Amino acid sequence: MDKFNLNSEYETILSQIKVLEYDEIISKLFDTLPVLWTRSYNNLSPRISNICVVSHDSFHYIFDIGPIDEDDFANSPIYYEPRIVTAYGISKPQKSKRDDDRLRGWIGKTEEVFGKLWDKGHFIAHSIGGAVDRNELNIFPQKRTLNRGWSPQGKIYRKMERYCFDNDGIFCFNRPIYFDETFRPSLLEFGVLKRDKNLWVELFDNR
Length: 207
What we know:
The protein has helices spanning 7-17, 22-44, 70-75, 100-105, 110-113, 144-147, 152-166; strands at 51-56, 59-64, 83-90, 118-122, 139-143, 171-177, 187-193, 199-205. By secondary structure, it is α+β, with helices and mostly antiparallel strands. It has one domain: Extracellular Endonuclease, Chain A (3-Layer(aba) Sandwich). The strands form two sheets. Strands 1-2-3-6-7-8 form a six-stranded antiparallel sheet, sandwiched between helices. It is globular and about 45 Å long. The model has no long low-confidence stretch (mean pLDDT 88).
């Protein structure tokens, strides 16, 4: 089994709390999953991590800001970029216009910075409560066919986002998996706790 695969852990956790009400399950997942995600992230990378959590509205972003002192820089075997460990929270469908001006200004023009195959994607879509303004860490280089729903995987990705939009108060998460030390994920693990208390998890290729 892939060392980044957490499906068995998810199943074990849910089996112990599935008898609870939906909101109570969410509370338990808030307590247990961030620890699991952070441990998995640290196990997958040789980098010296410096983990913090940034909250914005109904979502939380576990973020590795990287080394903060000279000793950490000296002891790190490689160069690496600050990046998201996991974004998670409760869907809160938005009717307001997306802050595209802020998105366009992030880093620079998308195709000049990342190339024609990439978009500036949201770990948490604006439509369900994600934001860019004052929350730029929600943005990452995402494969265009995935982000726009053009590929078969992209259609599933959009379907999951749509479920969160159509159902206010849904627990969901987006866990990037990195095969190098940049902030561009190689894979995305998107999870949605459906109203029937079943966890819908899909793994998407972002290479």
